[in-house]
Amino acid sequence: MSIHRTARSVLRRRRVGLLAGVLAAAAGEVTACASERGRSPASGLARGLVDAAPAVLIDAGVAVLGRADKPGLAVLATGASALAAAAGGHLAEHRPVLGAAVAGAPHALGGFLVLRGGDASARGSAAAAAVGVLLSATAVVALPLRPRPVLTAAAGAGATAAPATADTAATSTATSCTAALTAAASTAATAVVATAAVLIASRGARRRASAAVHAGVQLPVPARALPPVPVEARQGPPGLAPLLARPGEMVVIDVTVPAPRIDLDTWRLDVAGDVRRPLSPALPDLLALPLEERDLLMVCVHNPVGGSRMGCARWIGIGVADLLELAGISGDERQWLVAEAVDGYTNVLPLHDARAHGFLALGMAGQPLPREHGHPARLLISGRHGQDGNLKWLRRLTITSTPPPSYWGSRGWIEGTYPVHPASRIDTPATHTRLHPGETAVHGYAWAPPIGVDRVQLQVDTGPWIDTTVGIDLGPDAWLPFHATWHATPGRHRLRVRCRTVDGQWQQHLTTTPYPHGVQGLHIITVHVGTSPAGPADLLSVAASLVPTGQRLGAAARTRMLWAVHSASAWRHGNRS
């Protein structure tokens, strides 16, 4: 029985360590959210994972997780804290100092990474790291000192030893099973409570930060405003992405978790390098310049064919060419523009591209730029993917003839070879949707910034390519809505869409991965036309209605796994897969 008791004791210490690690991560997150500009150790670990992981692994991870990549990073960071605390609990019985050090190590490392980044409050971030270290270390060190600590009881401890008889052995087995179930339930409950606390604290912090932005920034009327978009053009059918996204509707993509909270009193945008008049304007100085509106499309380099890691919005700001003119650049088009964010992210762009298509955004959809979209200023380059041309939380622009590697260039990506290729997608109907026979509307978007699209065609099965009707044209830097009417006949059908640029270039049919030259390929969906199978019971109809959903989920999972495999293969072979 002593061996069994020892084994159960080890398991209890590990379970308590897991609970302590989860709670410590949650406590660090809540502490960071309570401060003005603090960041949690978990956020530092998440960013550290992105910085340290090979680019091929990131490509594959994004392909599998899609828009859940940030929650995935948060889970990994929290899991690391929990596993370290479990290991610390195991070591603490005989080596308490080592156990405490192991349990607190992820929080200390995460805090160090946050402070090294320099994009957060040192006091708030240090406090969050200290809370995580103290909570995890204290919990695991206290395990061997008390026979029934509170956390041990919560994890299912406290079984009383009994004489080693057949009856008591069975009772002991049942008790162990009950204890295991109780431990699993308590662990799950603790994780749920910790997650809820983090979500509440994070939501409150985001609300306070958003309120501070709106209270402290007043956008002037743009000197060059665009005409308003007609209401009927904005109102699309269910399932169609917004023509012009508002805050909260645009996908958020970056390598920092969460978004930095920048102190506007100290923030400046430095414009330096090979310029005659270096600039360092604050946000009010930028807002005092003649501003303009632009409708610009953003596309993530990891956006798959037909994917949603993209969006179009109406931005308010100043052209990069106008800003650089104030700084007095030499005009040498062979130079480069190095853009740097407060979190250390950098982009390197040919100066002629930045001047021709660059935009410094200060507002979005008539509102101050949201924090998650780069407040107080972000860089947008029409025709370039996010990782190659769009940068949030901008703090420095440098003109140089000898540029350093960009953030992704130092990770193996080829600098400046990821233009946004002509592409199109079908938003509605969704793939594997069950439709009724008859007239069916097909809606979607096509884009080819900075050239623009003049023609969109739809193909059903192996039939001819048919011209669609294009909607409002917001300009070459935005996307172009289209719609078509199709007479759906019973059966399974495949729909494809393609577009042509204004200079006559048709969209490529061959599907390629992000590396090494950007995503290309035709968006293809499958739909099922016909009524659900008839049956005497409603259950049959319900089951039939769930079939398309299951097919859609299965197809999505299969596509993501294939995309991950192809992306890894492209990195291995260094050419298009």
Question: How does this structure look, described?
Answer:
The chain is of the alpha+beta class. α2 packs across α4. The chain is built from 14 helices and 18 strands. About 8% of the residues have low confidence. β13 and β14 form a beta hairpin. It has 3 domains: 208 residues, no CATH class; 179 residues, Oxidoreductase, molybdopterin-binding domain (Sulfite Oxidase, Chain A, domain 2, Alpha-Beta Complex), CATH 3.90.420; 151 residues, Immunoglobulin-like (Sandwich). The strands form 4 sheets. Strands 2, 3, 6, 7 and 8 form a 5-stranded antiparallel sheet that branches. Strands 11-18-17-13-14 form a 5-stranded mixed sheet, with no helix packed on it. A 4-stranded mixed sheet has the order 1-9-4-5.
Largest sheet properties: 5 strands, antiparallel
- Beta strands, count: 18
How large is the share of residues in beta strands? 15-25%
Round the mean pLDDT to the nearest integer and report it.
81
